[in-house]
Amino acid sequence: MWIRILLITILSAPFSLLAQQPEQPATPEATESDNGTIAEVMTGGTLGADEGSSKFNEYRDLDNGLRLFGLRYRGYTPDSGRFIEAVGTNLGLDDQSFKARAGRYGTWSAALEIDSLPHRLTNDAFSPYTDAGDGLFTVPGVVGILTTTADNVNFRASDMLENDSRIAAYLNQNLHALPQIGTDNNRMSLQLTYSPVAAIDARLTASRRTREGEKITYGPLGDRPPRTMNVELPEPIDHSETTLQFDLGYANRFFDLNLEIFAPEFSNDIDSMRWQSIYFGPDADGAADYNNDIILAGNAIVRRAVSTFGQRALPPDNRFTNTTLTFGANTALNGRFTATAAMGRLRQDETLLPYSYSTLTKDWNSTGKLPRLSAEAAIDTFLLDLQYTFAPLRGLRVRPFFRSYNLDNDTPEDQWWYVTQDAASNTTGSATFMNKRINRAYDSDRRNLGVEGTWQKKSLTLGLTIEQEAIDRGHREADTEETIIRARASYRPLQWLSLRGRAAFGQRDADGYDFRSELSSYWYTSAENGTGTNNPAFSFTNHPDMRRFDVSDRERSELDLTASATASPTLSFSATWSRRENDFDSDVTPVQPLAGTSFGAANETTLGIQLGLLSQDTSRFSFDANWNPNDRWGATAFVSLESIDLDQRGTEFSEDLRTTAQTPRIGTPGQSWVDPANLWRAGNEDETTTFGVGLNYSIIPDRLTLTADYSRSNGTVDIGYSGFGSDQPLDTIYYAFRSPETVEHVQRIANLAIEYRLPRGFVLGLRYLFDDYDVKDWMQEPQGEWVDVVSNNFVRDSTRDNRWGNRLPRLVGYLGPSYSANVGFLTLGYSW
């Protein structure tokens, strides 16, 4: 009774603190002969922090007051072999973890697992939208008339400024705070195992995952650029995944056989989301000015039928089944042969939405316009994996292997209309010929063939692998073949020194890169457009000199080195260095993409300079040391450095002029796809440096213990831009670009803990956590000459005309703002 009274008295102490979980303390491991329980309860919280930051508690549940921080129980009866065990942390909270298992060793067992993990995106979002349920978002009223222009000649700057002022006034009047945006992720699984005899093992697992909450997304409004505005919205998430898995295995001295059936089913309780326009009123087919986007073309007024609601589908329900059969057998020469065959089946047949939700777009809002009423998506996969390991000589092992993976996409390919931004482009409800598209069923076939050899003698081990990989892709630019060589070595020259190394080299070749591969996705005829300036089906979509990095030539090299040393019984070191280099330099030669056509640019030739990702390099270094001079002292230190460099090249050109004579126009740069002045280059450098120290000291042996640690992490991201637009003034030219300011991240974390072991199995602890995070990010905090902050939630690009206008009302929720927190805890542990 006195134990219960003491627990209640201590744990209900009047702390006016917000609870915060530090790094979880290590709990004693129970051996098979142990029986007992270890429990730890915690109360405490934040002494001071910026509660507006979602990053401080991004993946944790920080509640005020008492929590069951740790629990471990184990019971075992040696005579019968029966056992029961349980372990959990933060029980009852949103970041809880619990696992319990019971059974009889060698015969049967049952296990239950429960895991929860929150993900908080923002705490301070504001929006004019109200969630009406079932994916519907509404607003109170509309902004009113938005005016645009048909070309630069008739452009009136006052129109854009008037539009901006109206949107800003509307938002300032109608914004309201949203609940915390994020998701709660939960998983529960039950597993039963049964082994009637030693040779047979069966296992059945049933699990369910749920994900509920919101994520930040966008909604386009209007008919098409330049008459398209956007809003940020909290996309509703109500996902669940139910999985059944059955495993049956048989093994004897000569061979083993295993059957696995894996069957997950995904369900989304919200099929689509709809959002009301804040720019336009009810559908009226041009009946009133405020219902329409008004374009001034010369002296004529052209009304546009614009949808007052946007709509799109959310992730669809789908089912997947994978059956795997594995066979293994022992052979001569101390060998082992294994074969694995797996068949997968994915199906998704959700009812399709109409092209448009709006009644203004005539029959586009009817499913009768669709070529089929449901997705009918079907993908089948087949995997075959063969391996044979044997020892032809003493100390030498050889492993030839073959792997084939085929993805067959049986989804029907039909002719569709792409009705942009949920509305047709005029009151008749028509769409242009360029909106005729075919959905392509992408598939692939991958084959790997190789041999691995390992030789070992005393303290030296050497390994070499040679592998050939071939990938055939349907509806893609190229098939690829790659030769990969891997080498590894480990050596222990001295008892206290261990060295390991690994190197790899790969040469991938793309088989005839075809920039025309996407053209087959259009189904209009040349007669429908004639010699128009924008004709993607008979010219090109992406620039012919561009190479997509996953199907381009590539040369890659990898090197990993590790050294571990035990300088003395009390001092040890380890160091690791790695380097990854990917060079996507491809054989790009000048081509005439319009040769043989009647277009005005039929004789034009590209520059033959590769566009796209050119290289990607990653290097990492880490060093750590451990010092334990005696039973009472212990110290650790570490440092790590990581650097990621990306290099890419692009070009600016007008898609409306890809079929015309390409003489660069004076005063209109960026028009020509053959002009070298339109090339630009961007390099991305991402560097992170982290170091830390730790200390533990037994002030009173077996009674009073002090532990402390400190770490600091510095990260920077630099983007270096050069080429097109970099020499133009930012305040007057819309195509002017600059290298942005450096993104900086700094985080400092310090932990301090004192634990005192009381009689009768109690442990009393006092802990302190300091967590400071500072970020400077131009992507979330727009600054500079080109930014005009109209209000707290609306930013206008003041250097661009309305054709590129940025009218994106934001949720005003920075995903990970800076914070500083001081956290205190009182803990009580008990074991018996």
What's the layout of helices and strands?
Elements: H1 2-11, E1 36-48, E2 65-77, E3 82-91, E4 97-104, E5 108-122, E6 126-127, E7 130-133, E8 136-138, E9 147-149, H2 157-174, E10 176-177, E11 181-194, E12 200-222, E13 228-251, E14 255-268, E15 272-276, E16 293-297, E17 300-304, E18 309-313, E19 318-331, E20 335-348, E21 377-393, E22 396-409, E23 415-417, E24 436-438, E25 444-457, E26 460-473, E27 479-494, E28 497-511, H3 526-529, E29 554-568, E30 571-583, E31 612-627, E32 633-651, E33 679-700, E34 704-723, E35 743-757, E36 762-776, E37 787-791, E38 794-797, E39 819-831
Parallel strand pairs: 8-15, 9-16
Antiparallel strand pairs: 1-2, 1-39, 2-3, 3-4, 4-5, 5-11, 6-10, 7-8, 11-12, 12-13, 13-14, 14-19, 15-18, 16-17, 19-20, 20-21, 21-22, 22-25, 23-24, 25-26, 26-27, 27-28, 28-29, 29-30, 30-31, 31-32, 32-33, 33-34, 34-35, 35-36, 36-39, 37-38
